[in-house]
Structures are given as C-alpha cells and as structure tokens.
Write a structure and sequence with these properties.
This protein has 194 residues and is mostly helical. The longest helix has 29 residues. It has ten helices and no strands. The protein folds into two domains: 86 residues, Serine Threonine Protein Phosphatase 5, Tetratricopeptide repeat (Alpha Horseshoe); 69 residues. It is 76% helix and 0% strand.
C-alpha cells in the first residue's frame, strides 16, 4: 500500500498561502502600477512642461509627443491639452512649432481641424520644414498628388541630416515611383544647407 506523506497543517496553510499569493500577485502588481501612474498635480505639471519644452525645440520628436499625449489621455484631460496649444497659438501666432505640435495632437486624437490648420500654417510659415512634412502626410492621406511637392520642400528646408535622410528614404518609397526617384536624385545632389 502506498502511503502519502503527511504534512502538518501549518505546511498546508503555507502552501495554500503561497499558491494564492502567486495567483493574486499579478493582479496586485497591476493595481500598484496604476497607483504609481497616478501623479500629483505638481508631478503632472512638471511632466507636461518637460514634454512641451522638448517639443518646443523639435516639434517632430516622437517620444515627447507620445508621452505628452499619454499623460493627458490617462488623466482624461485631452481637451485641456488641445486648449492649451490653441490658446498659445492665439497669443503667439508666429509659433510654427506649436502649430506643428497641435496638428499632430489633433491627428492622433482623431479630432477635426488638423487639415485646415496645416493648410493655413504652411501658408503662413512656408519655410518651416516640420509643417511642410505634416502637409505631406495630410495630402498623402487624401491621395493628393501635391504630397510629393510638400515632401520635396520639407527635405529642401530640413537642416537635420538624420531627419533629411529619413525623409529622402520616404520619398524613395512613395508609390509615385519614377517621379519620386527623380526628385530623390535631385535632393541627393543638393548640398545640405546648414
């Protein structure tokens, strides 16, 4: 006859407690992570300022834009973020960078007005490469043949070598084929304006 080992009742309770802890731990860690994401007002404002400062220096930086949108979305304050940029643009109408950020926020939050804003902003700031690039994205999304012209202008104006190279690569990948390759060849022969 096979005899099973006997365990003292305290050992069984410990094993059950361990098993329960292993089952509940992931749930508790998710709850703790959510609590850690809850920021104080000061922490929220500091994070917002850091993201917005980074975007002030380069409105096309992905990480700060993603962080800013995530920060406001998780706090259910996207209307406030849009209002903040709209108010800033009303006060500083020559801030092409802020317009670039607002266009991206509107696009990512699937809000109306990005197309109109990009069109008017490019008209007011034709020498700002980020706006030319955003206009390219907008026109490309509509299937507008003028998209190629906007990307070409953006490349002409861009002084950041890495970004210019990235945009040239994008130009080569466009479905317009021969015309895109021809423009990319022209772009490659132009000296980089620094």
């Amino acid at each position: 006859m096979l005899r099973l080992p006997t365990f003292p009742s305290s050992a069984i309770r410990s094993s059950l407690a361990l098993a329960l802890a292993l089952l509940v731990a992931p749930l508790l860690s998710r709850e703790a992570a959510a609590q850690e994401r809850t920021l104080t007002v000061e922490q929220f404002e500091d994070a917002s300022l850091q993201y917005r400062t980074a975007l002030h220096y380069d409105p096309l930086l992905e990480a700060p834009l993603d962080g800013l949108i995530r920060l406001y979305r998780e706090a259910d304050r996207m209307d406030e973020l849009v209002g903040l940029y709209r108010s800033h643009i009303e006060q500083y109408s020559d801030d092409a960078g802020a317009k670039s950020v607002l266009i991206q926020i509107l696009n990512r939050d699937k809000r109306e007005g990005a197309g109109e804003l990009v069109t008017s902003a490019v008209t007011l700031h034709p020498q700002f490469p980020a706006l030319q690039y955003l206009q390219f994205r907008f026109l490309e999304g509509k299937g507008d043949e003028r998209a190629l012209d906007s990307l070409s202008r953006a490349i002409d104006l861009e002084t950041n070598v890495a970004r210019r190279s990235q945009w040239l690569e994008e130009l080569l990948q466009l479905p317009e084929g021969d015309e895109a390759r021809k423009r990319a060849g022209t772009q490659l022969t132009k000296p980089l304006a620094i």
